[in-house]
Structure formats: C-alpha cells, structure tokens
Amino acid sequence: MTGNLQMAVQQSSPRTNRTVPTQENDLAIDADNVHVTYDDGTEAVRGVSLDVAEGEFLGFLGPNGAGKTTTIRTLVTLLYPTEGSVSINGYDTTTEPQAVRESIGYMAQETSIDLELTPRENLRIACEMYGVPSDERNERIETLLDLVDLHDVADKRAETFSGGMQKRLDTATVLVHRPPVVFLDEPTTGLDPEARLRVWDYFEKINSRGTTVFLTTQYLEEADRLCDRVAVLEDGQIIAEGTPESLKDTVGRDTLTVAFEQPTDRQKRRVIEAVRAVQTLDDATVESTPSGLAVHAPDVTRAATSVFEVLTDADVAISAFDVDSPTLDDIFLSLTGDDESAAVESEIDSTRAATQEVPR
Ligand code: ATP
Predict the structure, then answer these.
(1) pLDDT on residue 251
(2) What is the pTM of this model?
(3) Is the shortest distance between the CB of 347 and ligand 1 below 6 Å?
(4) What's the CA dihedral at 12, 18, 20, 26 to 10 degrees?
(5) 4, 5, 3: which is closest to 327 by C-alpha?
(6) For the chain, which residues make up each domain, given as ranges?
C-alpha cells in the first residue's frame, strides 16, 4: 500500500451495518452480456453482466485500462453496446436513451462545472438544463449547497476553489433533477486524503437518501468504505463480485504476529512446534519471523487465545503483538496479480477519455 492509501484506510472504517438490497428490489441497472468494441478493434468490454438493485451502492473496481470508463459511458448512453443490452431504471439505453438520461446523474472524470461561475450560478444552469420547474429551483439549489457544504462560498467563483470543492460542486450539479441513479467515474482521483474523506461523506449522504450509486474507482479503500457490493473488472471482464467482506473472506486470512523478548532460535523452534500441535489451530499456518512467529488463520482472535496460552506455558515473554486483517488491496492483487493496479497515484489518461467516440 502507498502512504496515501494507508492514511485513508486509517482515517475511515469499512462500511458496516449496511442493508444490502435484496433481489426482490427493482433493478436500477440491468446490464446483460455487454460487449463494446471500438472502431480500431479494441475489445474494451467483453461480456459484462450486472444487476444493481435500487438503493444499492456498487463499486466498479479495476486497474487502468480495465474498461471501467467504457462500461460507465455505455451505461449512461454515451456509447452503444456492440452486443448485449442495458436497461437503466427500466429504460433501454439503445432504444430509449433520452428517458435514461433524464433518470440519471452522471459525473465524468473531468469536472463539467464552469469555473468562471459561482456554485449558485452553476446549479442554476444545471436546473435549466435538466428542466427543473422554475418555482422549485431556488429551494433545490439551497438544499444542494447545504448538502455539499458550499453555502459559505455559494457566490464565489469556482476557479478559486480547491479540487475537492470543485468535485463537490460537480456532484451537486448532477443531482439537481433528483435522479434515482447516479454514476460517478473515478470521482476522487487526484484529491488529497482529507478532501477525499469529505467527498465520501457526501456520497454516503446521497446513498442514504435512497439514491442508487454506481462508482468506478481504483481506490480500494474507497470501495471498502462506501460500497455494499463491488465488482472487479479486468481486461473488460468481471473477474469477481461480492460484498467487500465476502471478497476478503475468499482469499484473505488474518495474521497474528508475535514478537518475543530476546528470542533464541531454540526457543522459537520449540514454541512454533507447540503452537502447530494445538488442535484448535488446525486451519492455521504458523511461521517463524526474525523476532518471533506469525500465525495466519481464518479467525485470528480465536487463534490468539491458544497462541498466548502456549507462550505462557513455555514461559516466553512477549515484547509486542499485532493483528492484521486482509484488505481489498490483497484481494485485488491476488485477483489481478497486478501491483500497479492498487497504486493510489495512478494517473488517468484524461486526453484519451475525452476523445472517445461512439463505436459502431
Ligand atoms: P482508466 O482507469 O485508465 O480510465 P478504464 O478502466 O476506465 O481505465 P477504459 O478507458 O474503458 O479503461 O479503456 C479500456 C480499453 O479501451 C483500454 O485498452 C483503452 O486503451 C481502450 N480505449 C479506450 N478508449 C478508446 C477509444 N476511444 N478508442 C480505442 N480504444 C479505446
């Protein structure tokens, strides 16, 4: 993990107590075997199927070039599927694109706000564009300014704002027509950890009001903190799908690391043999470390009790211990085998994204 990533993980806790929508809910997004091939033959999306329930927060994870932007642009009708079908809020993206557009909010990677205008002016223009009734506009604008915490600077030009403030304003502009589904394409790329945390709070607020959120991201801790479910994309195909917790469970194991006071090789060998002999640790792996031992187990809390009993019996003094749980980074790396894909600092090729065209 990079420094930034670690910092963000420490400052936020994984999402808990969430109600994952059940299949009885209506589908906000229904993509069936979607393929997108560009004119030059690049098969950017190869058979993606997705069901996203109303009110769900879905994270769409993938390394650079995996096909996230192509997928999201297809879902929001900016690209047509070469094969397969997409329905958003019950409307088909190919035959009813206008109805789809009116029922969604889409935040692209590049901010679309006018920096020479103030937040209030930007929101007024968005209200006009989305056809918000004129007698409702003032109230909507004030509510959104409150939501994104920009009331104090509502009449200042946005060019003076930080990247995080501009992103918050950008997200507010895609919500003026109260869309039931919002698509966010790597919304926090380039933001510092503090700005990212504020934007995350805002996304949580939107989702807690019932809005379905589809978020593409390369930041694994972002998905961990925000999403009910994540789908991992690589080379245009979904290679894993589930709640962040269930994905961690599939490949991850907790690790208990124990350091002994002035350990000798003999002492370590003796203790490790004793720990390996404990029956309750049948499903654990025990290994020697320079200062003691490490135990990898599915339930390390249970394992810890046995390990500490063995150490007490062997009269070994503990100088330190640490428990480490798997993160989405571990899952991501084990699935994609790509070290760079988990890097926080990866840059977006915005030039290429800005020149995408509708493929035939
Ligand atoms: P990033 O995180 O870098 O934005 P991504 O996961 O969003 O990546 P896409 O931008 O969808 O990935 O790109 C998927 C593949 O399609 C890549 O191989 C990319 O080079 C290719 N691609 C994207 N846009 C075009 C285009 N307009 N014409 C041809 N190929 C394209």
Answers:
(1) 61
(2) 0.72
(3) no
(4) -100
(5) 5
(6) 3-103+179-249+338-354, 253-324
